[in-house]
Protein 1
Amino acid sequence: MYKLYVQLILLIFIGCLLYAGNTIRSGDRFKVEVFNHEELSGDFVVNDDGYLYMPLIDTIYVKGLNFNIAREIILKKYSEYLKSPNIIIVPIFRISILGEINTPGIYNISGIESVSEIVAMAGGLTDKANPASAKLLRRGKVIAKFNIYKTTTDELARKNVTISPQDVIIISRRFMPTLQEWSVIVSSALSLATLLTLIISLNR
C-alpha cells in the first residue's frame, strides 16, 4: 500500500511539473482515480468544445486552463457530492515518435515512463536505427540528444530536460550498413567483379 501511495504522489508531482506553463487543449486526456468509487474512475478526454465530461459532476470547461487550476475545480466539484473525497488526477499527454521506429506516430504517456519504454510502445527500433543518436524536439528545436538505452527520464530531468506535451522524439538512422545490407553490397561487388573479369577475358 505504501508503494502505491508513493507512486501516486510521484504521478501527481510529475503531472503538475509537466503541465506547468502548459494550457489544456481539446484532445488532452486525464486519468482520474476516485478511491472507493471505481465507477467514477477512468480516463477522460477533453472534447472539441473544450469540455471534460466526468461521472457525477457532468461537464466542466477546462480548455485554456492551467492543469493545476483545472484540477482544483474538479476536486471542488466532487467535494459537493462526496464527503472528503480522495481523488488522484494525472494528465496523460501526447508526444510524437518519428524516424527509425517500427510504428511511428502519436502516443499518450503519463510522463513516468522511461525512454526505452516509450520506444517499446512504438514497436521498438528498426534494424537501421541508431539508438545512440536520438533527439528530443520541442517547438521545432532540438533540446536534447541522448542514447535511448543508456538514458532514463531521471537523467534527462537532472539535465533540466523533461518530456513535455507535444514533444517529438526522433530516432536517427545509422550511417553504417546493417549486416543484411553488407551482404547485398558484397554480393553486388562480387557479381560486378565477375562481370568485369568476363568482359576482360572476352576482349583478349
Protein 2
Amino acid sequence: MSGTTVSPGRRASPPAGPPPTAPRRPAPPRPRRFGIGSLLRTAAILAILFFLLFPIAWLMITAFKPEREVFSASVLFTPSLENFAAVFTGDNSIAPSLVNSVIVSVATTVISVPLALLAAYAFSRYRFPGSRSLMLAIVLTQFIPGVAIAIPFLTVFRDLGMLDTHAALVIVNLSLTVPYNTWLLKGFVDGLPYAIEEAAHIDGCGQVALLWRVITPLAAPGIFVAAVFSFLLSWNEFLFPTFLARVEASTLPVALMTLDRPEGVAWGPMAATGMLVMVPMLIMATLVRRHFAQGMTMGAVK
C-alpha cells in the first residue's frame, strides 16, 4: 500500500498553500461631505426651531422688561421684576388663582390615577358581559369636543349650587383624565404576567395587597405618565374654568383674561403671568422626559 513516508524523528511538513496574510487595517473614515441636501435640511431644522422657540424667548424677555420698554426695539435693557410685582399686588393679584390652579391640579391627579388604575385592572383581568363595548365607549369619550359638554356641566353645577367651586373643576377634569388614563394603564396591566398574581395569592396576598404591593410597582411607569398627563391637563385647562369658575375658584389661565383691560392689554404683567404658567411645565418636562418616554413605549409594546 502506497503512502507518504515520514522519516523517523522528523515531523511532516504542512500542506502547501497560500502564505498567511496580515490582517487588513480598517480604512480611515471618509470625510463627511455637506451637499445641498444637508444644507437645506439644516436650514429647515433651524427655521423650525426658531419658529418654536421665538415665542418663548419673547415671553421671557417681555416678562423682565419694564412696562415702558415692552415695545422697545432695543435688545439691551435693564431686567426688572416690576411685572411680577404688579401681578401679585393690588386688587387684580393672581395669587389666589395660582393657589386655585395648584389645588385643582393636585386634587385631579391624586384622584384620577387610582380610579383609572382600578378600572384598568378590572378591564384587563375580568371578562364580564359588555366589557369590550364599555371600554370602547370610554375611549370614544375622548373624541367629544369640550364645547359640546360645557353647557350641560354648567346647568348641572348651577342646579347643585356648585358653580365657582374647586369641586366642580375637579369633577370636570376627572371626566377628561380618567378615560384616557384607564385606556393607558390597561395596556400596562395587560402586559403583566398573570403568574405573578397567582404566586402572590399562593403566598397569602389579598386583592387589595396585590394591587398595592404587586401591580402598582410593576405599572409604575404607566402610573407616572398618567399622573403627568392629569396634572398638565388640569393646569392648562381654560374652557371649563371660564364657564364654571371665574371669581372665587378661577385658575391661572382665566386670570390671564383679566389683564386684557378696557384701557389696553397689560403686556408686561401678561408675560409675567404666562411665565408662571409655563415654568412648572418646563421644569416637569425637563425632569421627567426620560421616564415619560419609557412609560409611553412600555405601554405601547407588549
Protein 3
Amino acid sequence: MLEAGAVGFNLEDGCSDKSLSPIELQQAKIQALMELKKETGLDFVINARTCVYWNQLFDEDTRLKVALERGFAYEKAGADCFFVPGPVPQAAIQRLTESLSIPVNIILNPASGSISDLQELGVKRLSLGSGPVRTIYQQVIELAQETATHDFHRIQQASFTYDDANRYFR
C-alpha cells in the first residue's frame, strides 16, 4: 500500500462485538508500524483510533478516562495522531487536546460543534466520515418519497446539467 502511495494507517481498537481490543495489542501494532517506518525510510502517518465513543461504551466519565488512557498508551507507542470518532462532548475534546501531545482528530457530528469551536478546542484533524454519503442518501430517499406522491418539483427545478456532471469525470 505504501508503494502505491498510501500516506498513513488508521489503526482501530474497536472489535466486531463493540468491545475494545487490548491496549497492549494496539501498542504492538503501532510499534510494528514504527519499525516499518525505520526499515523502509518512508514517512507515513500512524493514526491510532479508539472506538470508546463511537461504540458508546461506559458512562461519560469512564469514556473519557478510557480515551485518555488509550491516547497516552498509543502516543507512547509512537502514534502520530489520536482519532476519537463518535459523539464526543466538547469538554472531553478539550481535555483530550490539552492532555495529549499528539494531534487529536475527531469526526464531525452534531455533538462536535462548529469548525471554529473545534479549532478553539485544539482539534488538528477533522473527518467527515460517512456524513456526506448519508446526507446524499437522505436526499435521495426524500426525493423518492416526493416522487411516489407525484411531487416532481425538485426534479423540475434542478439546475445541474449533463454537462455539469460530465465535467467531474474528465
